[in-house]
């Protein structure tokens, strides 16, 4: 057995509690190992500062498209088919613009988020992720898209994610948590939803951890994040993560239409009052940002990025 003096024990305890202050300048990844304090201690960023960092990486490919229905339903399409609609900086910027447009569309009752070419979203674009694979870039991305999704979640309309094809994986699953409801297509048994972030050496960002807890509870959230399993429709419904199954996009529209058949002002008032009880999630989201940042660009994350990028070549 190891014998330590009281003085040695005291020194050891002080060292084990000491946070590792990460000096992050110019986007460089620190060499410190995050053994004791898994929180970000770098430069604070406002939403606009974070936005200015992310939009430096706008690409010509990929978009998020908005279609306004005469019945007050918005259709929001994640459109980046070359990588199963994975999210890049351009798409983040488009989603910000669309969210602002929806906040001003006073006749809107509901919205459906779906993916182009029969797939929902495979997560974050790995090429984009590689460009900002350091804690500073991760923190900026978290602040930027987390704010956008939080604003989208608070819109006074009823929102549905229609998940089909390969499904909603990683960042794609995170986006679904910003919707009020999630529907999975039952036309193919291969459609899944899941949070395999731990396999990428990170935790969820964009505010989804707090939203996930509010959807399925603490224990099921732990299971989903620790096990990184991808759930098919039946299991996702059993867990409470998904609210129903449909066969086509038209079925998803009909499903939403039944929810929003009432008076426009009453529907918007119901959503607004419900969201009043959700404000504490903003505090959780900011803590999530601090925990996420040092993992982004860390040893495990960079190794996973390299491995997945090689698989995609």
Short description:
The chain is of the alpha/beta class.
Please provide a written account of the structure.
It is built from 13 helices and 9 strands. By secondary structure, the protein is of the alpha/beta class. It has 2 domains: 47-260, Alpha-Beta Complex (2-enoyl-CoA Hydratase, Chain A, domain 1), CATH 3.90.226; 264-312, no CATH class. The strands form 2 sheets. Strands 1-2-3-4-6-9 form a 6-stranded mixed beta sheet, with helices on both faces. A 3-stranded mixed beta sheet has the order 5-7-8. The chain is globular and about 50 Å long.
Output the CATH class name of the largest domain: Alpha Beta
Strand order of the largest sheet: 1-2-3-4-6-9
- What name does the CATH topology of the largest domain carry? 2-enoyl-CoA Hydratase, Chain A, domain 1
According to DSSP, the number of beta strands is 9
Give the DSSP E fraction (strand runs of 2 or more residues). 5-15%
How many angstroms does the end-to-end distance come to? 52 Å
Order of helix and strand elements from N to C terminus: HHEEHEHHEEHEEHHEHEHHHH
């Amino acid at each position: 057995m190891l014998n330590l003096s009281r003085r040695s024990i005291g020194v050891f305890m002080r060292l084990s509690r000491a946070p590792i202050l990460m000096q992050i300048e110019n986007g460089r990844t620190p060499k410190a190992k995050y053994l004791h304090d898994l929180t970000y201690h770098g430069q604070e960023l406002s939403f606009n500062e974070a936005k200015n960092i992310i939009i430096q990486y706008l690409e010509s490919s990929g978009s998020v498209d908005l279609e306004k229905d005469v019945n007050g339903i918005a259709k929001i399409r994640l459109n980046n088919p070359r990588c199963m609609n994975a999210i890049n900086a351009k798409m983040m910027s488009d989603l910000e613009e669309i969210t602002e447009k929806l906040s001003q569309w006073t006749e809107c009752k509901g919205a459906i988020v779906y993916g182009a070419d029969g797939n929902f979203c495979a997560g974050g674009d790995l090429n984009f992720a590689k460009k900002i694979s350091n804690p500073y870039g991760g923190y900026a991305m978290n602040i930027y898209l987390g704010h956008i999704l939080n604003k989208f979640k608070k819109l006074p309309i009823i929102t549905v994610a229609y998940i089909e094809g390969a499904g909603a994986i990683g960042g794609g699953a995170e986006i679904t948590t910003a919707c009020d409801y999630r529907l999975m297509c039952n036309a193919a048994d291969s459609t899944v939803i899941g949070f395999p972030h731990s396999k990428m050496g990170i935790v969820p960002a964009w505010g989804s951890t707090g939203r996930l807890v509010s959807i399925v509870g603490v224990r099921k959230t732990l299971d989903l994040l620790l096990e990184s399993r991808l759930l098919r429709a039946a299991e996702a419904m059993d867990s409470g993560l998904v609210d129903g199954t449909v066969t086509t996009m038209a079925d998803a529209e009909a499903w939403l239409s039944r929810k929003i058949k009432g008076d426009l002002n009453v529907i918007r008032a119901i959503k607004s009052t419900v969201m009043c009880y959700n404000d504490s999630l903003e505090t959780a989201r900011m803590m999530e940002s601090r925990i996420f940042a040092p993992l982004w660009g860390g040893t495990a994350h960079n190794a996973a990025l390299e491995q997945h990028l090689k698989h995609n070549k």
